[in-house]
Design a protein that fits this description.
about 325 residues, Rossmann fold, Tumour Suppressor Smad4, 2 domains, twelve-stranded antiparallel sheet, four-stranded parallel sheet, 8 helices, globular
Length: about 325
C-alpha cells in the first residue's frame, strides 16, 4: 500500500483550503493510499516534515500550498526516493501549471481532488534541482528586480491572500521606479561578463512570473542543466520595458536579453543580494555559486506527462 504525508500550509493561497485538503486526502485513501495529514508552521518545519517522511520511507509527500512550500518540501526530499506531489492551493502554483493542474479557487472548488485523483495512479519522474551556495531550489532563483519585489511582498505576508495579483502589480510598479540594476561579474560559457542587469534569473522550468511568462517553449527539467536569463539595463525605463516584454512573451526578441544553459556558474555582486528563490525572499552574500543537482528529486506526474517537460518516460512508484 502506498503511503503519503500531506503537508498543509494554512497561510498559503487565496481561499481557505481545509475542506479541500480533507477531500483530496479522501480521494487518495479511496485509491488505496495510507494518508497522514500534517500542518506546517514555518518553512523550516515544512523541510523537516518532508525529510522525516523520506526517512520513514513514505511513498510520497503531497504539499497543499504554493511554489514556496513546494520548494521547502523539495529540500527535505532531495536525494531520496520519496516523490513530491502537489495539491495546488497557493497563489500562483507555477509547477502545478507546468503539470496541467488547476489551482484551488472559489470557482474551482474540486481542484485539489482532481489533482489527487491524477497523482493517485503513482506515475513518477526524476527532475533536476538547483543549488545556490548549496541551498536547494526547485524552480528558480533570481537576483535583481524580482528579488526586490518579493522582498517587499515578504514584509506583507499576512495580507498576501487578499488580491494577490493586484498587490504584486503594485510592488512591481514601486520597484520599477527605484531599481537601477545590479552589477554582476560572472563567467558564462568561458566568457567573462561584468555589466549591470535589471534581472539575472536562473530557471529550472519553462514558466515564470506566476505562469504568465513562458521563458522558453522547450526546457526539459531532467537534462542536467539550468537556464540563466540575463536582462541588461540600469534605469527605470529598462525595468519597465522588460516587465512589458515578459508579460507579453516578447523578451526573446530583445537583443539585450540573453539565455545561457549551464551546469555550474559563479557570480559576484557589488553588494549583498536579495534573491527570489521559488517565490520566497532569501538574503545571500555577494558571491554566489549556482549549480545543478541532476535528477535529484522524484515527482508525481500525470501519465502521459506534459510534452517536452521530461526526456525520459515515467515510471511507477515502487
Amino acid at each position: 500500500m502506498p503511503s503519503a504525508d500531506i503537508l498543509y500550509n494554512p497561510v498559503a493561497g487565496r481561499v481557505n483550503a481545509d475542506d479541500a485538503v480533507q477531500r483530496a486526502a479522501a480521494v487518495l485513501e479511496s485509491a488505496g493510499w495510507d494518508v497522514h495529514l500534517k500542518h506546517t508552521r514555518s518553512a523550516r518545519h515544512t523541510t523537516r516534515l518532508a525529510r522525516r517522511a523520506a526517512e520513514k520511507g513514505r511513498s510520497a509527500v503531497f504539499v497543499a500550498g504554493g511554489d514556496g512550500s513546494l520548494g521547502e518540501a523539495a529540500r527535505g526530499l532531495l536525494g531520496s526516493r520519496t516523490a513530491l506531489g502537489v495539491l495546488p492551493s497557493g497563489t500562483a502554483n507555477v509547477w502545478a501549471q507546468e503539470l496541467g493542474y488547476e489551482t484551488l479557487t472559489a470557482f474551482r472548488p474540486t481542484a485539489l481532488e482532481d489533482a489527487a485523483r491524477i497523482q493517485a495512479a503513482g506515475w513518477t519522474q526524476w527532475m533536476d534541482m538547483g543549488l545556490c551556495n548549496d541551498r536547494p531550489f526547485l524552480l528558480w532563483t533570481g537576483a535583481g528586480l524580482d528579488g526586490e519585489v518579493v522582498r517587499q511582498m515578504e514584509g506583507q505576508r499576512a495580507s498576501r491572500r487578499a488580491f494577490p495579483y493586484v498587490r504584486y502589480a503594485w510592488y512591481i510598479l514601486q520597484s520599477i521606479f527605484r531599481w537601477r540594476g545590479l552589477r554582476l561579474k560572472m563567467e558564462v560559457d568561458g566568457q567573462p561578463l561584468d555589466e549591470r542587469y535589471i534581472l539575472a534569473l536562473v530557471s529550472n522550468i519553462r514558466l515564470y512570473n506566476g505562469g504568465f511568462t513562458t521563458l522558453a517553449e522547450r526546457n526539459c527539467v531532467d537534462d542536467g542543466q539550468l537556464d540563466l536569463w540575463l536582462f541588461r539595463g540600469e534605469n527605470p525605463g529598462d525595468s519597465f520595458r522588460y516587465v512589458v516584454e515578459l508579460l507579453s512573451n516578447r523578451h526573446h526578441d530583445d537583443p539585450a536579453v540573453t539565455r545561457h544553459t549551464f551546469e555550474r556558474i559563479r557570480l559576484e555582486a557589488t553588494r549583498r543580494v536579495n534573491l527570489q528563490m521559488d517565490g520566497d525572499s532569501v538574503r545571500m552574500k555577494r558571491e554566489l555559486e549556482i549549480r545543478v543537482a541532476p535528477r535529484a528529486l522524484r515527482v508525481l506526474v500525470p501519465n502521459p506527462p506534459p510534452e517536452g517537460l521530461f526526456s525520459q518516460p515515467p515510471e511507477q512508484l515502487t
